[in-house]
Amino acid sequence: MRVGIARERLRGERRVAATPETVTQLTALGLGVLVEAGAGTESGHSDTSYTDAGATVVPLLTPGDVEIFCHVRPLTPEFAGTLRPGTVTLGLASPASELATVAALAASGVTAFALELVPRISRAQSMDALTSQSLVSGYRVVLEAAIRFPRFFPLYMTAAGTIPPARVLVLGAGVAGLQAIATAKRLGARVSAYDVRPASADEVTSMGGTFVNLDLDAVEGAGGYARELSEDRAVRQRELLAPYVAAADVMITTAAIPGRAAPLLVTHDMVTAMRPGSVVIDLAAETGGNVEGVLTGQDTQVPTSAGDGFVTLVGMQDAPSTMPADASRLFAKNVANLLALMTADGAVTPDFTDEVVAGACLTHDGTIRHEPTAAAVAAAVTGEN
Amino acid sequence: MRVGIARERLRGERRVAATPETVTQLTALGLGVLVEAGAGTESGHSDTSYTDAGATVVPLLTPGDVEIFCHVRPLTPEFAGTLRPGTVTLGLASPASELATVAALAASGVTAFALELVPRISRAQSMDALTSQSLVSGYRVVLEAAIRFPRFFPLYMTAAGTIPPARVLVLGAGVAGLQAIATAKRLGARVSAYDVRPASADEVTSMGGTFVNLDLDAVEGAGGYARELSEDRAVRQRELLAPYVAAADVMITTAAIPGRAAPLLVTHDMVTAMRPGSVVIDLAAETGGNVEGVLTGQDTQVPTSAGDGFVTLVGMQDAPSTMPADASRLFAKNVANLLALMTADGAVTPDFTDEVVAGACLTHDGTIRHEPTAAAVAAAVTGEN
């Protein structure tokens, strides 16, 4: 069977779903690999490097060329509509928001796997793209903060006086938040962090951060993810966070709720209470933002309430794509590992009795297998009528 | 006596020669301080913060307002020509290149102190602006590299495989180079460094770097600075460096020779032999560059010789000004400390029997006191006739 790797079409997307390293892995499984010309350029992989690894480079990859189609970003409904029945697709699918694509995949009879749905069990860690890409985002967001911050992160004791370390506050201590804590700590900052999940306190501490303990009830949803707060508790949370925000030089927000808009953690007034020169990076900008007024893909200079300067508010966009080489290295491995789990004797044959395969499957044989998505698609269709 | 702090006029210069902290220090010495409106804005200091510290903020600072004039960038010949005899100036003066200004300062009867000429003795460390600003540049240059590098700096061992650390090569191990080594190391890179001065090997090692030992004779000039190599030895040095450059993911060049153009350490061919995605940052771009083809203030995408991608070549400009808050904090302390050395009973009265005062003095009483500069100005005048 043949696996196709397309050049990503979305503007700003620089990753690729296979590297020469994973091409070698896939061909060793007996699969043929077709790579669209230029697919790896932004990640540092020339067409020649794919050919050398055993792939066939084609000028344009069409759905008829392959039985398995690997991608980074969710497919468009139009493209999904052109896929042949029985085609296997594998990549990010944003099932909660890309309902039209999900419906088209089901209608086309495609067996679609969404990397977002890979169960968070230890056997599936090597296929967990949310984790691998959050590692990139969490590291990157600290560099983005440091490059905009008019001061040092580390403490320096110099002949001309002592420079205190930057105070970094991280909100949301998932994979990206923990990685942000670790990276800011590496750079020498004094780091504190907050998460609604009390279980994250130990993780924050182990990364070198100080856990901010607010006097709020614990909130933890299924699978270790955060779940939504009631509005009055969200207000109380913001009130309790305000003094920590005001004391921070750099704030990084990473709070996400799967399938929902990002929670509003920081109001405009909380930002304006910060000192001039402070930097706020909102990693959740693309899903609505943790910070009021954030604009995706843009820096905003927010005047301080004291009138003595500005806070730089950054709406991060496409964070993993800013480091396409290592982001693709990990993503491609996630894809190849999931594919390897389903491949025997050169053929991809998903075994739905396997909890990872079953969990990651979004559509199969004309139906939407992921129940919350099926319900959302049904609701959307009803709403339209 | 009154000290004047002007808003810097040079485009791209964001530092200021006094902070509210040093205003307090200067007023405690009995000096009056006049600050031009907006002088500290880019460094995060409002006019109000200067007033609160005891300064008088004036809309426009004119030479007649003050007896002492502190600045960051070298003055223009025009401005120097307007200063009254006996005025004391204090700031960076670039005496080797700004000959017209030096001549104008002498002609105006100004007592000018150049921070570049502060002797490198331990008593004068707190006045050493070259060192304090190089600390900023050395830290900053690593952030500039990391933000352009498509991979991580640190080693990561993840479920989807191990990511090796970035290999960073630093050429020139002065204050900026050592700080670059330390910062790259903090971020988790594997760092090696080279300097023509063998004495720097221990310093490189103490910062966590591996010293690159080339089979070249040692070269060390006066005061611990590097001096120029003969052309055939410079060629040999480049040949010996080539394999280290080719193996690096990130190269940072910081080699400077006081009063001279920066030495050419890396040829175009050495850059094109690097891997695609590699990043080269030339901190010496403003003085001619250590890397062939570098453009000051610009990123250049240099095609690799293998044709598989590009190396990003960055000509750093105004590095300390990219972090104006902490750069100004240190610079202003250097200025205030030198001024304090010359101040008694509210009056600035330079004591030329003090080795620091005498060493830092560029012009006084109508003459150019720094002999190499006096010779250069005389040669320039002769050349013009």
From TrEMBL, chains A, B:
Q: Where is the Alanine dehydrogenase/pyridine nucleotide transhydrogenase N-terminal domain?
A: 4-137
**Which BP terms in the Gene Ontology apply to this protein?**
NADPH regeneration
Top-level lineage group = Bacteria
Q: Which UniProt keywords apply?
A: NAD, NADP, Nucleotide-binding, Oxidoreductase, Translocase
Q: Any idea which GO molecular function terms this record carries?
A: NADP binding; oxidoreductase activity; proton-translocating NAD(P)+ transhydrogenase activity
Record field: catalytic activity: NAD(+) + NADPH + H(+)(in) = NADH + NADP(+) + H(+)(out)
User: Where does the Alanine dehydrogenase/pyridine nucleotide transhydrogenase NAD(H)-binding domain lie?
Assistant: 146-315
EC numbers: 7.1.1.1
Record family assignment: Belongs to the AlaDH/PNT family.
What the protein does comes down to: The transhydrogenation between NADH and NADP is coupled to respiration and ATP hydrolysis and functions as a proton pump across the membrane.
Q: What NCBIfam families does UniProt report for this protein, alphabetically?
A: PRK09424.1
Protein name per the record: proton-translocating NAD(P)(+) transhydrogenase
